[in-house]
Amino acid sequence: MKGYTMSKSTQYGWRRIQVNLTRAGVMVAMLVSWELASGRLINSLWISRPTLIGARLAEWVLSGSILPHLRTTMTEMLIGLVIGAILGCLVAVLFGTIPTLAELLHPFVTFLYNIPKIALVPLIILWFGVYTESKVVIVVTLVFFLYYFNVYDGIRQVDQDLQNTIRLMGAGWWDLVRYVIAPGILPFLLVATRLSIPFAFVGAIFGEFIASYEGLGFLINRGAQLYDSAGLFAGLVIAAGIGGILDYLASRHERIALAWKPGRNLY
What pLDDT, in 10s, does the model give residues 84-142? Predict the structure, then answer.
């Protein structure tokens, strides 16, 4: 059995190496084709060049000029994520444990969820200005519903007999939430977190793109307005890189936290 396990592990390791090498080869081929096509087949004003984009990235990093923009975007994202998560979980727990409250107000939450969030952005900026506050509110409006619906659905799937039993034993509302609801909704909470992180990041950037004086969205928008395609693509590369890292960390955290569930592993 041990030899079989090691053999399977070795095969999986080689498979991952082959996949990663293939991905790297495709990426290199795309970059080389892009570099050759720019200025020859396509006007470089529209697509820039990988070498120019790399030079702009190096300039931003070495000068440190990118740091204030990163700090602004990440601050907006994290504050909005925390506030949205707290509000979404709180409302979901209240509605999930108090049926009368859910019967009265859940349709209103669904109605608000169906409003296109992009349509609210100009209104939010009008109310809260072009600084950090408006971006935080935009992130909250995106994150709140992801937490609310996931946690609310999780509460509805918690064993009702178990809830009735603990109530018959004299447990209060807080005891029910602490000892029955909280453990039962953990997988749903982690799924909500994994989904919310990229939404929060994109929401902060989108708000900056509409109106801001700092942040990754501001950099991308400035590049577009000035026809600085190298700056525009450099901003997109940074945003995509950070988004990928955040998604990987969130997925990794979810796998580790749920490793106890059947059919799950750390890899």
Answer: 999 999 999 999 989 899 999 999 999 999 999 888 988 999 999 888 999 999 999 99
Distance CA 88, CA 64 (A): 36
Domain boundaries, the chain: 2-37, 60-257
SS3 42: strand
60-257, superfamily in CATH?
Answer: MetI-like (1.10.3720.10)
Task: Return d(Cα 111, Cα 88) in angstroms, integer.
Answer: 15
Q: How far is CA 110 from the centre of its chain?
A: 21
- 47-81 per-residue burial string, b: 16 or more CB within 10 A, e: under 16: bbbbebbeebbeebeeeeebeebbebbbebbbbbb
64: left (phi over 0), alpha (psi -120 to 50) or beta: left
Nearest to 210, CA basis, from 200, 201, 222, 199: 222
| Nearest alpha-carbon partner for 87 in 156, 129, 122, 139 | 139
Beta bridge partners of 38: 42
For residues 91 and 140, the answer to whether their CB atoms sit within 8 Å is no
Contact 193, 250 (CB under 8 A): yes
